[in-house]
C-alpha cells in the first residue's frame, strides 16, 4: 500500500495521465532512488521530485516542471 505522500502525488498526476500511469510513474521514481512506494516520505521529497520531473517530461517540459513544483509544495 502506498504511503500517504505517494498517494497524494498519484492524486496530483492522475488527472493528466490516469490512475494506472500515475502510480507507475511514482513507483518508477521510487525505484530510481532505491526506495519503495510504501516508504516514501518528506525526507526524500527533493530527490523524488527530481525523478518524477524526469519521468513526466513526456508530458512536456512545462508540465513536468509544474508537477515537480507541486510535489515540492506537498
Describe the structure.
By secondary structure, the chain is mostly helical. It has one domain. Helix content is 69%, strand content 0%. It contains 4 helices and no strands. Helix 3 packs antiparallel against helix 4. The longest helix is centred in the first third of the chain and has 14 residues. The chain is globular and about 30 Å long. The two termini are 19 Å apart.
How many extended strands?
A: 0
- The total count of helices amounts to 4
Residue fraction in strands: under 5%
Please give the share of residues in helix. Answer: 55-70%
Terminal Cα span: 19 Å
Structural class: mainly alpha
pLDDT averaged residue by residue: 94
List low-confidence stretches: none
Please tell me the total number of domains: 1
If you compute it from the alpha carbons, what radius of gyration comes out, rounded to the nearest whole angstrom?
Answer: 11 Å
Shape: globular
The H/E string reads HHHH
Biggest sheet layout: none
Amino acid at each position: 500500500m502506498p504511503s500517504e505522500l505517494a498517494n497524494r502525488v498519484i492524486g496530483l498526476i492522475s488527472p493528466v495521465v490516469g490512475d494506472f500511469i500515475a502510480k507507475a510513474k511514482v513507483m518508477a521514481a521510487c525505484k530510481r532512488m532505491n526506495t519503495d512506494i510504501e516508504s516514501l516520505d518528506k525526507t526524500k521529497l527533493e530527490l523524488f521530485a527530481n525523478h518524477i520531473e524526469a519521468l513526466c517530461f513526456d508530458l512536456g517540459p512545462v508540465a513536468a516542471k509544474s508537477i515537480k513544483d507541486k510535489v515540492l509544495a506537498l
